[in-house]
Design a protein that fits this description.
Layout: E1 2-7, E2 11-13, E3 18-26, E4 32-38, E5 45-51, E6 57-59, E7 67-72, E8 77-82, E9 91-98, H1 102-106, E10 120-121, E11 125-130
Length: about 130
Amino acid sequence: QVRLVESGGRLMQAGESIRLSCVASGRTGSRAIGWFRQIPGKEREFVAAVAWGSGSRYHAESVRGRFTISRDIAKNTVYLQMNNLISDDTAVYYCASSGSTDIALYGPGSAEPPTYGMDYWGEGTQVTVSS
């Protein structure tokens, strides 16, 4: 079992940067950790994923170049660095874990919302970007 706790979300201004954290506990060794986001009334969207062991990572095209996922094994934490925020980044951001590292290598592929094949989810953290 894996427990995930997100933090770091808050009200931001467009153009600013923020870093979200996801602390993982449990059996993370061979897993992938991903970040997803959801706006009320819309489908959950894949943002980025990282393989816990190798550090391989994949970013959605919509955030590539602005967002960076990383992990710190010693701290059991996965980060999402979000730069040059825009209003469309406003959402609840969730981290989730999968027993497969495919999502960190190839992206979500044919996996669909809302679960994208991920088996453990955090409660989410709200990021609001004001323009």
